[in-house]
């Protein structure tokens, strides 16, 4: 148990660290888990307690917490050139090489990459690019951004406006012109008697209606995660991206894939867009881009947007945007290594090999009378708790059912994440079968404990 005495790590964390996305009553009751190091998929706290991290940190630490290739790549680059920017016509060799690599592994024949320090900044950058382009092309009214409810795109003011979560109202967001369409979650949003194909077609019609209502000439882009991640691991219904892309193409609206979670292997292919068989106009990347070993995001523009943005920038001599650490050489060196490890060192194969075991473990837990849905793609999955399976009625919110399950797991040495009434699992790609068993055994125990307590 956490040590709450004065001057303990827990008390010190609480005294001067301001928590984000942390349930404060839980912290007051349970304290902060202060971590010191990791080994493979495990992390260790200041008291030496070991936890299997079934969430890969925050989806990103896909190669585990002490991959020698990645730490060596970082050390070597720190020794050689520990930092430089990408402004004023200068950039590092690592930056040049990473852009080449990203286009090579992208679905695009050609294109261009712009670097940020996070996924949120990459989404902000993308929106600024679309706005800049619209004005340069004489269409200043083309500013609205379409996303989906429960889609997660980040926390900066623009990316929070794109995110379809109710908590953004606490900030007076979204900004005007950010429109959220129906969440493509068939289990929850499908109507009585509606087939999956009918659901997909309803969502495509909704998009068509919104475009007509708003005016196609006012819409700058549609941004979507191939699988909604932080909104609850929601794979799209069959045919969704084909149906959506047909509508967007008709109105010349670009489709941008926010691949911050799906990118670099999570769904069993390099890109989630490959898994769902569509080619977007641009890709947003972060998280596994550096396997979590450096903060970095990237906007990867396909040929059409890259060319038009080039022309628009030349009209005013520059694209006036960039972050001090954009294209940081250490981040780029790590990303190059990370991509190499994922593609050539068996990590992507491991996702494919582990997926059947992951799916069967989830399916087994879905037998539980209070698990309403198990959903997954590749190595991202969620178990949705329900009070009543036939009606899908949720538990009363004040029961905090998913928090309790996650807390019982933490006590038992397993990190997993509560999300609404679901538990999210996104293990690192280096997990062994034995560690998969450990993950599901611990989760099984926690579900039994918590449901016995509250029902
Ligand atoms: C995490 C996430 C972001 C935001 O990335 P940050 O690095 O936390 O700013 C954006 N989009 C998706 C899909 C994400 O999962």
TrEMBL record:
Record Pfam families: Aminotran_3
Cross-referenced InterPro entries: Aminotrans_3 (IPR005814), Aminotrans_3_PPA_site (IPR049704), PyrdxlP-dep_Trfase (IPR015424), PyrdxlP-dep_Trfase_major (IPR015421), PyrdxlP-dep_Trfase_small (IPR015422)
Alphabetized GO MF terms: transaminase activity
Cofactor: pyridoxal 5'-phosphate
Keyword Transferase: yes
Residues spanning the signal sequence: none
Keyword entries, A-Z: Aminotransferase, Pyridoxal phosphate, Transferase
UniProt record similarity statement: Belongs to the class-III pyridoxal-phosphate-dependent aminotransferase family.
PANTHER family tied to this protein: ADENOSYLMETHIONINE-8-AMINO-7-OXONONANOATE AMINOTRANSFERASE
Protein name as annotated: Aminotransferase class III-fold pyridoxal phosphate-dependent enzyme
